[in-house]
Task: inverse folding
């Protein structure tokens, strides 16, 4: 966890993600990325020079018309002294039954973000933390290039003018391997995704492509993120 926290602190300081008095809503899906970020921010809160508050928010898609089991995440939040909000939604029903989306990820992401923004504002937060890491950034860059013919990525810090909220991504300098290592070494709970398209998306295809390319071009993901920074693309 110390290594992951060092990457997080580096990103937070480089992009001024945290200010004194911030109240940050952590988007917690229950997957390894969001859980690792939850614990990392909770521990950083103890000694980071700028004081901030945290809450954790889970949006349950209710796959198969059933409430997800987030009891282990709830216990973890209790141990970390972080208020935890679970919002039951009809995301799965709307996307897969009502609309029968062929490419559901984009709509799902937009709907989840909208609900997360609302909860953050209702809870008095001024910032939202998402668990995207360096691999996600490289994959997003490649997806934009291959599918849209565009050079771009999500930003380390984004301002949402309609909601007067900032979106921050503290793990952008950490690799997926760093996240997995932190989860395993600290025996942290992870909620298995029940999404019917899990591991069957365009992002998964790009992940496999980058894995294959890195056999000939080592550290390609890190190089892509470095290029985003040097090119000052999307506020990197």
Result:
């Amino acid at each position: 966890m110390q290594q992951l926290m060092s990457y997080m602190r580096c990103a937070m300081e480089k992009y001024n993600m945290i200010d004194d008095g911030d109240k940050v809503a952590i988007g917690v899906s229950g997957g390894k990325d969001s859980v690792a970020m939850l614990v990392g921010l909770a521990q950083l809160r103890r000694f980071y020079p700028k004081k901030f508050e945290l809450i954790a928010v889970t949006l349950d898609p209710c796959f198969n018309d059933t409430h997800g089991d987030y009891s282990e995440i709830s216990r973890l939040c209790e141990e970390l002294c972080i208020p935890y909000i679970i919002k039951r939604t009809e995301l799965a029903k709307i996307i897969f039954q009502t609309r029968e989306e062929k490419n559901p990820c984009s709509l799902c992401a937009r709907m989840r973000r909208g609900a997360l923004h609302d909860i953050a504002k209702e809870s008095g937060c001024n910032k939202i933390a998402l668990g995207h890491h360096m691999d996600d950034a490289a994959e997003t860059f490649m997806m934009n290039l291959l599918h849209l013919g565009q050079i771009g990525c999500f930003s380390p810090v984004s301002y949402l003018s309609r909601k007067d909220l900032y979106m921050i991504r503290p793990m952008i300098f950490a690799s997926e391997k760093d996240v997995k290592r932190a989860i395993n070494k600290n025996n942290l709970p992870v909620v298995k995704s029940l999404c019917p398209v899990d591991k069957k998306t365009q992002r998964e295809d790009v992940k496999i492509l980058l894995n294959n390319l890195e056999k000939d071009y080592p550290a390609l993901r890190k190089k892509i993120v470095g290029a985003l920074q040097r090119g000052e693309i999307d506020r990197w």
